[in-house]
Design goal:
- The chain is globular and about 60 Å long.
- The relative contact order is 0.10.
- The chain starts with 15 loop residues before the first helix and ends in a 14-residue tail after the last strand.
- It is an alpha+beta fold and 367 residues long.
- It has a four-stranded antiparallel sheet with strand order 6-7-8-9. Strands 1-2-5 form a three-stranded parallel sheet. The chain has a two-stranded antiparallel sheet with strand order 3-4.
- It has two domains: 187 residues, Rossmann fold (3-Layer(aba) Sandwich); 131 residues, no CATH class.
- Helices cover 32% and strands 17% of the residues.
- Helix 6 runs antiparallel to helix 7 and helix 7 packs across helix 8.
């Protein structure tokens, strides 16, 4: 095999920020204060209460069983080296594995320096961009690129991690890898883990655990109820601090653009950085003068159960606000009229009123 080193700057779509981060770190140090790699200093800044640490270990045990890394994480002063990826078909792009192994290597290096550390892989099961995870690419024996794709797409707002696997293209994978060393072994492993009836998140996690079993990598599924419960206080704080967070991101975007880079997260004044899960669908929560809204419905944060609050958006995509000629009033803790399932959590009841009943100024939103 002939190996060739290709610089990132020779690859299409490489951003200036990533190129400077990789080859000229001194240029971006104001944006990445720990780019010098002084991980001991970073670890020393972490303060994690013992009670919360114990709750985290207990929650992770549900997904990771008797993984020895949990005992390491339970130690006072232990840190986690976290990476992650969308739950793509057949483990997604090759850098999924590179990310995981990098976290393993860094955790081992820190442990060798006297800082207990464990590698953690974040399964991005909440993402709803199915077009990014429904396929993967492999090469066949003739060096042709072969695209393997999962048929049938879920609803555009459904978290991809919950999408149930059916008819994964395992036969096509086996045909493409025929003749390769370990080709049949890899195909058999994929067939074993991507069983019909499993979700994309479950299958991805099962395959990664089998591939990297010897490295003690902990998996985190943010859709797990126990983890959502733990995350609820942080998400509520983020909702309360949304105006300040938005202002800070907008200011950072301006600084990046002034330095010759592009904005990393596209936000606007109404961005909340948080989604709401309702009846298996994900909705963008937007701020208004009256509080939080989804397409005209008012949401009262104190009524939101932890299971309905997903983590902040990784892209915080801009969603244009929609105007409406009707007024919406919302009452907390009532079944939604939109929901036909008595078992699904509902947190509001929204009723339309004719705009003629609105006594406030027509140019102002109604609360």
């Amino acid at each position: 095999m002939n190996c060739t080193c290709v610089r990132y700057t020779e690859l299409p779509h490489t951003s200036n920020l990533f190129a400077d981060f990789t080859y000229h770190p001194e240029k971006v140090q104001s944006f990445y204060p720990h780019i010098d790699g002084n991980f001991e200093a970073i670890a020393g800044e972490i303060r994690f209460p013992a009670e919360r640490r114990a709750s985290l270990v207990a929650a992770l045990r549900q997904e990771n069983g008797d993984n020895p890394a949990l005992e390491q994480l339970a130690l006072e002063g232990a840190v986690a080296v976290v990476t992650g990826q969308q739950v793509g078909l057949f483990s997604g792009p090759a850098y999924t594995i590179y990310k995981a192994l990098t976290a393993v290597k860094l955790a081992r290096d820190l442990s060798a320096r006297g800082i207990p550390a464990v590698p953690v892989f974040w399964l991005a099961t909440e993402d709803h961009d199915f077009a990014e995870v429904d396929h993967c690419w492999v090469f066949d024996a003739e060096h042709h690129a072969i695209k393997l794709q999962k048929p049938h797409s879920p609803a555009s707002s459904q978290p991809v991690g919950q999408f149930v696997v059916s008819a994964p293209p395992v036969a096509e994978l086996r045909a493409a890898l025929a003749g390769f060393p370990f080709g049949e072994e890899v195909s058999a492993l994929v067939e074993e883990t991507y069983q019909p009836g499993r979700t994309m998140g479950e299958a991805f996690s099962a395959l990664l655990k089998r591939l990297l079993a010897q490295y003690g990598l902990l998996h985190v599924d943010p859709m797990a109820p126990a983890l959502r419960e733990l995350a609820a206080p942080a998400l509520r704080s983020a909702l309360a601090a949304a105006p300040d967070l938005t202002a800070a991101v907008l200011e950072r975007n301006r600084a990046l653009e002034a330095a010759g880079y592009h904005a990393q997260v596209h936000v606007e004044d109404q961005t909340s950085f948080v989604f709401l899960l309702e009846n298996g669908r994900r909705f963008t929560l937007r701020r208004s003068r009256c509080g939080l809204r989804i397409s005209g419905r008012k949401i009262i944060p104190r009524t939101l159960p932890p299971s309905s609050l997903p983590a902040a958006s990784r892209a915080a995509r801009t969603v244009r606000s929609r105007s409406t000629s009707s007024r919406t009033t919302c009452s907390a803790a009532r079944p939604s009229r939109r929901s036909k399932s008595s078992s699904a959590p509902s947190t509001w009841d929204c009723r339309r009123k004719a705009s003629s009943t609105n006594t406030s100024s027509p140019s102002r939103p109604s609360c």
